[in-house]
Amino acid sequence: MEIPVCIEIQSVSKRYKSSQENSLTDVSIDIACADVFGLLGPNGAGKTTLISILCGIIPPTSGQVHYYMNGSQISDAKRKSKIGFVPQEYAFYQELTPRQNLDYFGAMYNISKKRLEVRREELLEILGLAKSADKKVGTFSGGMKRRINLAIGIIHEPEILFLDEPTVGVDVQSRNAIIRYLQLINESGTTIIYTSHHMSEAEEFCKHIALIDHGKVIAKGELEGLKAANHVSSLQSLFINLTGEEYRD
Ligand SMILES: Nc1ncnc2c1ncn2[C@@H]1O[C@H](COP(=O)(O)OP(=O)(O)OP(=O)(O)O)[C@@H](O)[C@H]1O
């Protein structure tokens, strides 16, 4: 049985107003429902730009993005309540505690007080933040900050979750906790689209990938199939084979 498409990206190009060049050129990708999809590529490839377009934060210069749920296209308004976004930058208030941050962002999604309380405590527990739930987030380690960033992005139980480098700068323990939790919510049906520079993590985590370089898709498909077709045994080798060794400064 064919898995239905959840996000259809059609010929998306982006040129920022201040720029002479495209940051994305003619990007077309289909992402299946309940997939773990990796958007991978070197620095400056266009990954954050693409995620920002998919989340509706910035518009494409040309091209279209369609979202589908239960086989039907959904409106932009409906899409907003269905998606979650965990950005690369910390998106919380340093002066507030994890409980206060989660209450604040939960209220923005109009979650009922009762449901929010349950969801908040559940996330604090699962992500190992319960003991520090009443301390200011500004005093936290990098790993704890990444985990609270994740908790905020999923407080409203999104069906589609975008994560931009969710494990950057964290230790192995926090990385494992984050990936384990993401695997858990994927198993219960959440579609995950994520970027990372951590190739062994992406290799373990992603089912399908798109490799982007200089704003263009240079490879896409099922990860194992791409490795076999390129005669390599690891995602890192595939990445180097297709994007080369030179710096992207
Ligand atoms: N607001 C902006 N205005 C102008 N150019 C931008 C803007 N944001 C990004 N760019 C440019 O668009 C290109 C793609 O950047 P983007 O941040 O999407 O890449 P990335 O793949 O996420 O990189 P990284 O892995 O370093 O985070 C780069 O050349 C970048 O300089």
UniProtKB/TrEMBL annotation:
Residue ranges annotated for the ABC transporter domain, each copy included: 7-239
Keyword Ribosomal protein appears in the UniProt entry: no
PANTHER family: LINEARMYCIN RESISTANCE ATP-BINDING PROTEIN LNRL
A GO MF term: ATP binding
PROSITE patterns given in the database record: ABC_TRANSPORTER_1 (PS00211), ABC_TRANSPORTER_2 (PS50893)
Organism, scientific name: Dyadobacter arcticus
Lineage start: Bacteria, Pseudomonadati, Bacteroidota, Cytophagia, Cytophagales
One Pfam family linked to the record: ABC_tran
Name of the protein in its database record: ABC-2 type transport system ATP-binding protein
Keywords: ATP-binding, Nucleotide-binding
Domain of life: Bacteria
